DNA sequence: AAAATTAAGTGTAAAAAATACATTAATAAA
DNA sequence: TTTATTAATGTATTTTTTACACTTAATTTT
């Protein structure tokens, strides 16, 4: 019967995480070298299995936390991958999530323990299974989402310069942006607070630091913005 | 161990379909009155379970075909829903798909057999489980996707008038559009063929019929268009 | 102490895109 | 032949986007 509930076709559900980070070298992803079969020794997204009494979102944050020690990280579900032989060991459907990490604060210890490593998007190694497809999909989603939601800030430190923000968007969109036009577009959103503080690392003059004004953003609009960069 | 493959946590995977149709009354969805427990007699999306050796996309098309007789339908995966008690009978994760149907050709027989019925989006009944959330999610996705991909045509007959296309976009976006601006924006995409034929149903003068020029669209660009309506 | 260096910060004019808007055309029915 | 109905069409205005270069502030070098 069409709609019968039956144990016959239960499957394993995995969660794989595309973990994005950003530093002065550009946009990065965190990968692990698998220390178990199959594909032991190959590079892989960070993943795990959904537990019986766990929601997918929780599985994603749990897995992220296990490998990186991070909590309260922005994550978004992407897509369910279900090719029959995508995992050669057993039929496994994987639901991908992407995460945005402020790379400055990552937990070195945990990452080392799991042989995890940050790679520039551009020169990431070939990944196992369908993980390359997941990565590509995640980048597309990230591009779209950052153009309508203020999630880019998740990749930056609490306080950041306009240059950092510009370079972040350049990395995400992988194209050059005009500095003046970028700044005026960002300013027109009116969601940043310009601090009195300056960052003195990058120049002699020093550049003003900004923070994301989450309260203002939230009270401002329920709708998305449109950021045509 | 973190990454062990284990049968312990296998789950049922369902697929639920948000089936959109369009006619002169507007945008519609196809719902069924459940004839089995739980929630027997309530309105529901059309759904079913993933089979062991089946890919999600295939499950979605199979389920759609079973209820409507349709084949070769545009479908897109939306999202995986995994709340613990979303289905009260058993832990079930559901992956939603939306489908775009040319409502003129639907298979009346099959739809009647399954107590299926088209509802205007505006006055759809309360749905079971988390199906209302799925529907809302699907409308959002449909809005976005039709603004960058030529999938609106899937909801129209092979030959259609500009007025039909206009009203389709108005229904999807649920806002009024200026006729002249709409037509010039559509024309600027250069993906329609204006036929010599006219549709005489709607007026004395008759209005030209168009078809989507799929070949031209495909040779034209690998990228998406941007349709700011 | 002056000169050179470096990145920060800032505004405007031109081009392109989006919008608002009203009349004529074709035909069938009365 | 008059009336009624929807189809078809273009332009001027406003808004948005783009392209573009010099001055400022502070440090380092000479």
TrEMBL record, chains A, B:
Keyword Protease: no
Span of domain Nudix hydrolase: 13-136
Entry superkingdom: Bacteria
Keywords: Hydrolase
Gene3D superfamilies xrefs: Nucleoside Triphosphate Pyrophosphohydrolase, Winged helix-like DNA-binding domain superfamily/Winged helix DNA-binding domain
Domain NrtR DNA-binding winged helix positions: 152-212
Xref: Pfam families: NUDIX, WHD_NrtR
Gene Ontology molecular-function annotations: hydrolase activity
InterPro entries: NUDIX_hydrolase-like_dom_sf, NUDIX_hydrolase_dom, WH-like_DNA-bd_sf, WH_DNA-bd_sf, WHD_NrtR
Protein name, UniProt field: NUDIX hydrolase
Organism: Flavobacterium shii
